[in-house]
Amino acid sequence: MSRLATLRQLSPHLFIVYSEFPHRDSGNVYLITGRIPTLIDCGSSRSAPQLRQNLAHLGIDVRDIAQVIATHGDCDHLQGYHELRRDHPNLQLHLHPADWSLVQNSNPYRNANYLYSNPFEPIAPGQCLSLVDGQRIAAGDGELRVIHTPGHTEGSVSLYGEINGRNVLFAGDTVGGAMRSLEGADLWIWAQAARTWQQSLQRLVPLEIDWILNGHEPAAGLPLSRGWFNRAVASFGKMMNPWFLLDDAADDDEPALNVQIREAV
User: Fold this and answer.
1) Residue 74: beta bridge partners?
2) Residues 6+ apart with CB under 8 A from 15
3) Of 75-79, 89-93, 163-167, 175-179, which range is least confident?
4) 35, 50, 139, 264: least buried by Cβ within 10 Å?
5) Is 213:71 a contact under the CB 8 Å cutoff?
6) d(CA 138, CA 34)
7) What is the pTM of this model?
8) What is the strand order of the sheet 166-172 is part of?
9) What is the CA radius of gyration of the chain?
10) DSSP for residue 140
């Protein structure tokens, strides 16, 4: 596994401060600098030392961070909050209320901790500040619009705003994330969950997006383009895989196979 050994600057006020590939137990962490220094997600507990080190390369201490805005409540995106809060007890955490139960309870299927070997530490109710669909929250020198995009989790949000002249979408796992584990669910429930997710994606389609920053893409591949986003949305749900993507260029050696797959979809 490779980790981002130092921060990566995308624009004057936008940085990737943690990323790992292949994914072990932590999502990507983004930093917006300016009047209100803001982290978008904060990774796992294991990622915290590297995150601190990467911030230090910019001359930023954890105590300089004003807030964490969470794209959703899965442990690989938020368990690092405990480590950061040990240095900064007043660090604010913004999370959609539909995901509060994920961080406050220890159900491993609800918070995705069943995928990892790390112990889960609940986040106290009093530490969660609410995010509301349509809310505009100050971050850096500007603001981000909260768009409720349930599907990966009930409280998943995407965050949209202009940073240094670019229209940026922080998508978390709404774009590219895995289907939730619906333990004991029948096919109808799975279909409904996929339908909810698809409706969330359609809310993002009209946005003017220059860059997409999602939860698990390797740092070298970021930011993602509008073209990538369009292809991902078009591929959602195919072959019972939420992100099954067919190559638009047919393979000359296997033309029949491409036709059969497309007809099956």
Assistant:
1) none
2) 7, 8, 9, 30, 31, 32, 33, 58
3) 175-179
4) 264
5) no
6) 10
7) 0.87
8) 136-139, 142-148, 157-163, 166-172, 211-214
9) 18
10) B
DSSP calls for the chain: -EE-SS-EEEETTEEEEE-EES-SS---EEEE-SSB-EEE----TTTHHHHHHHHHTTT--GGG--EEE-S---HHHHTHHHHHHHH-TT-EEEE-GGGHHHHHS--TTTSSGGG--SPP-PPPGGGEEE--TT-EEEEBTEEEEEEE--SSSTT-EEEEEEETTEEEEEEETTTTPPPP--TT--HHHHHHHHHHHHHHHHHHTTS--SEEEESSS-GGG-SBPHHHHHHHHHHTTGGG-TT----SSPPTT-HHHHHHHHHH-
pLDDT top residue among 178 and 24: 24
Place of tokens 């393979």: 251
pLDDT tens digits along 104-115: 987 777 778 877
Q: Show the tokens assigned to 180.
A: 């939730």
